[in-house]
Amino acid sequence: MPPRVLVAYFSATGNTETLARYAAQTLGADLYKIEPEIPYTAGDLNCSDDGSRATVEMGDAAARPAIAAQLKGMEGYDVIYLGFPIWWYLAPTIINTFLESYDFSGKVIVPFATSGGSGMGRTNQGLQASCSGADLRAGRCFRAGASRAEPKAWADGLGL
Question: Structure pTM?
Answer without folding.
Answer: 0.93
